Amino acid sequence: MLTPLITTDILETERLKLRIITPERYQTVFRSFNDQELAVYFGLTTPEALEKEKERHRKGVTTFNKSFLNFLILDKGSKKVLGSCGYHTWYTEHARAEIGYALYDEAYKGQGIMKEAMPPIIRFGFEVMGLNRIEAFIGPENEPSLRLVKRLGFTEEGRLRAHYYKNGRMEDSVVFSLLRDEFVWEEV
Taking the domains of the chain in order of start, what are their residue ranges? Predict the structure, then answer.
């Protein structure tokens, strides 16, 4: 499957602008921007976060059959980057991707930002990227994320033991999926 031609740079919701970051745009930004511009563009607030993003770039972000498509979440009024949401593990040959999301500041949590941002991003995944399956891997103690994906119609499939390394230890993941024919189109 080929990477789709993206004809717009931004999706919009009532309060948010969702700026698309493709692998090509990601490479262009890193070639063109200095460190300060990179930090502003990606909403990075610490030198450590900038170094982590630069290391990700150095290691490469795509392979012959795996890619990503991400969205920076911006507040419409202030244009401040609040977080990101998108497909960081996109298996192009198999029409499936893992969705991930994060808000960059605790102050933004509990305001329904992800609940507002995710439906158009999910729709984009099915309509534009041609996905058949969207997966979410969530830590079993991450109650807000567990509630969010359930509200969006994801189905719990099971648990992967010692699935990822976080905070100095291996943690489990609860596996969720949403299939194209399960998505409630008229609500988006």
Answer: 10-187
Average pLDDT, stretch 38-46?
88
Of residues 169, 168, 167, 181, the one with CA closest to residue 134: 181
**At CB < 8 A and 24+ separation, what contacts does 157-165 make?**
163/137, 164/137
- φ and ψ at 14, to 5 degrees? -60, -45
* Cβ neighbours for 165, distance < 8 A, ≥ 6 positions apart: 171
Handedness of CA 178, 13, 41, 146 (dihedral sign): negative
Helix (H, G, I), strand (E, B) or coil at 42: helix
E strands, 13-153, are: 16-21, 66-75, 81-91, 96-103, 133-138
Q: pLDDT-derived band of residue 5, with 50, 70 and 90 as boundaries? A: very low
The pLDDT confidence band at residue 80, using thresholds 50, 70 and 90, is very high
Banded model confidence at residue 2, pLDDT cuts 50, 70, 90? very low
Confidence label for 26 from pLDDT (cuts 50, 70 and 90): confident
Three-class SS of residue 91? strand
- Which CATH fold would you assign to the domain 10-187? Aminopeptidase (3.40.630)
